[in-house]
Amino acid sequence: MDLHGPLKKFFGFNKFKGLQEQVIKSIVNNENTFVIMPTGGGKSLCYQLPALMAEGTAIVVSPLIALMKNQVDAIRGISEHNGVAHVLNSSLNKTEINQVKEDIASGITKLLYVAPESLIKEEYVTFLRTQKISFVAIDEAHCISEWGHDFRPEYRNLKHIIKAIDSVPVICLTATATEKVQEDILKTLGITDANRFKASFNRANLFYEVRPKTKEVEKDIIRFVKQREGKSGIIYCLSRKKVEEVAQILQVNGIKAVPYHAGLDAKTRVRHQDMFLMEDCDVVVATIAFGMGIDKPDVRFVIHHDIPKSLESYYQETGRAGRDDGEGYCLAFYAYKDIEKLEKFMSSKPVAEQEIGHALLQEVVGYAETSMNRRKYLLHYFGEEFDDVHGDGADMDDNSRNPKKKNEAKEDVVKLLSVVKNTLQQYKSKEVVNTIIGKENALLTSHRTHLQPFFGIGKEKTAPYWMALLRQVLVVNFIKKEIEQYGVIKLNKEGEGYLKNPTSFMMTEDHSYIENGDNLIISNSKFSGGAADEKLVKLLKDLRKSVAAKQSLPPFAVFQDPSIDDMALKYPITLEELCTVHGVGEGKARKFGKEFVKLITTYVDENDILRPDDLIVKSTGVNSGLKLYIIQNTDRKLPLDDIAKSKGLEMSELIKEMEMIIFSGTKLNINYALDDLLDEEQQEEIHDYFMEAKSDKIQEALDEFEGDYDEEELRLMRIKFINEVAN
Questions:
Q1: 0.85 cut: is pTM over it?
Q2: Cα separation of 228 and 531, whole Å?
Q3: Where is the HRDC domain (predicted)?
Q4: In terms of C-beta density within 10 A (0-12 exposed, 13-18 middle, 19 or more buried), how is residue 143 classed?
Q5: pLDDT tens digit string along 222-271?
Q6: Domains of the chain
Q7: What is the pLDDT of residues 717-726, one digit of tens each?
């Protein structure tokens, strides 16, 4: 059967994309069909074309009203009958429902889009039973599986509802499904005989990058977006509050951005979505509610302000970039703190759901922290092999562009595989690593693993090292994760073979996200998307040292390291520009800035450096209000506990806010609060320590005083010290 005629007639295309033609043939032959096709691969055409060709009406089950509306409008655009496609959901009134029924009965309607909730209604089932139905298509089929990243219980009943209407072929379509999810979908729908079509998940035009998430994340985003002025992008955040905040900050900084989340009323959501589609705004800041089925081909970047809960979500959301095969930049900001937050949210869920959630989250951690080719890691997760040397898009990620050095790890791979084998393949990755480094816990003790000769076989290396190695051994298929058992590690035959005959194994170490003071620094500086100018950093540190010596101060009291790094990234040549540098306020700039600005100006001229011109990032003024409140109330000598309580802050959060004020050069007098905590002698002892210290890191101070003072006391004393000697 030639399908090119109908394709040209209905859609105006001359040729099919990828697997479309084979899928359509399967549907036209009335066979159950299962389609896995990445976002942008042309899934909808797979059921739209056969529906337009067949006698009767095709039912399309879809989870989102916005998605249905989009598709119905598109189909109506290619037909002279408005009734060719209809939506049946809670948004219709009686008259509209009768019109839909009339068009189906008279054979005009070829595609009927329904939400699963509507399909359950007895009146609809009774009506549809009397009509000629061509087939049922289930879009976003991963919603059927509780292993999917978007499970919806009402999807589980579809099998019975379809049977109640008619025994017609079923077509399932999804953009993301691991092996486990695929089996679950087919079993639940009772169509294990379905023809399966799986397109490659490789989107070669997408560039993947992960950056450390610091306090400066909004500044980083503004800089990134401003460099792509006029281009369309989506920024995903996990909470509605964060969506509103980020959208506001972008607007204040002259970027055309709108928020989108389920808390907005339907009218506003539709308006914002249309503004994005019609290019009246460039950026949508959204929760994951946005984007399903949004057919905008020229989204040029997708930014994850917060890391998502699963790699499926991440893949699907990044997949909204570059659908026209043009440039698509996928940037995610990652801090392990966010993972811990997500785990906390999960603790109220049933145990089985928690287990699934944790297993999915660990995959995200692996992706973010890995230093191997990100595309290879991602495709392996979806059960697809990728050649990271010659494959299409092999160098389209940050790790391939900035490779970390590799080390021979043959002996360690043998240790790792033998521990998996000797513990009878019953542990998840965390327990395997604990066994290797010799860290006891209840589970290992109950299995008496801690008494085995191999317990602690690799204790000379750290847990993150072994976890990194485990992930790389997983990707080359020496081991596999048993999803049925929430991630238990088993040996593959390739792993068995390696144990018998070990060969060279070059391992790249993971990125190490380490807390440095209050700023997340990534140990691989190339990675932070625009590394500081090392030569300038050295000159600035030398200058800092001499300025500090003249004033008899420790260098960190002049400018902290993150400030120096930021200067070497932004090249500020006026005091006003210096105030936009991390941790530098007007007071600090006035007191120490002149010589630094002078040095940078000379350096820029001598080295013909192009400076980034979007240095000034305006804030929305939320924090400036808090800053003023803290300064006024410490002047009034109000107890710090009362200041914190009145603003709904924990004490540690208040101290953090005070540190930001003090480090940027503004004076803040908290002597009255310290006098209640520490006597004169104690204060003097800590003051002298900071005067001599090489760095102002609190951990080093805690180690030095060996428990004489707690963290809160030391942080408050650091504030007093900087206030007196540096501001």
A1: no
A2: 19
A3: 530-610
A4: buried
A5: 999 998 988 999 999 988 989 999 999 999 888 999 999 888 888 998 89
A6: 4-198 (3.40.50.300), 206-401 (3.40.50.300), 406-510 (1.10.10.10), 532-606 (1.10.150.80), 622-725 (1.10.10.1390)
A7: 999 998 888 7
